[in-house]
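pasting for ref
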Amino acid sequence: MESRNIKELLTNIPDSGEVLGESNASDASPNTGAPSRKKFLYLSDMIDQAETKNEDATRNVINRYFDFGEALYLRYKELKPSGGKDGAKALVKEEVRKQIPETKFSDDALRKRMERAGKVYKLFNSIGRTKIARIRSFPARSILNLSDSNVDRVLAGVLRAERS
C-alpha cells in the first residue's frame, strides 16, 4: 500500500479544472433517440466525471485535515515557550475541546481527528503540500489511518525517490 501511495505522490498529473454535472442512467435512455453505443459512451463519460469528483473530494478532505493539523501545530508552537512540551499539548487539547463540544465529537473521536490531522500535516508539510493535488487513486482514509511508522515510511520513500 505504501509503495503505491509513494508512486502516486511522485506522479505529476495536471489538474483538468473541469466542473462536473450530475446525471443518472435515465438521462442516457434509448428513448432519447440516441443509438445504444452513444448511451454507453455517455455512461462511460459519466463514470469518468464521477471518479474525478471523488478524486477532488479526497484531495479536499486531505487539505482540510492538513489545515487542522497546521492550526494545531502553530498553536502548540506558540504555547510551548511558556508551557513546555507537555503543557503546550495539554493547553491545545483544552482549547480544541472548548471550541468543539462533546455533542459534536466524543473525546475519543476528537483525539482521533487530531491525530489524523497531525499525521497529514507531518507528511505533507515534509514532502510538500502541493503533493496533495497528485492524489488520484487512493482514498483519504488510506492516508488518515496510516500508523505513525507507516507515515514515516511514506515520507522517507517520497523524499528518497525525489533525491534520485
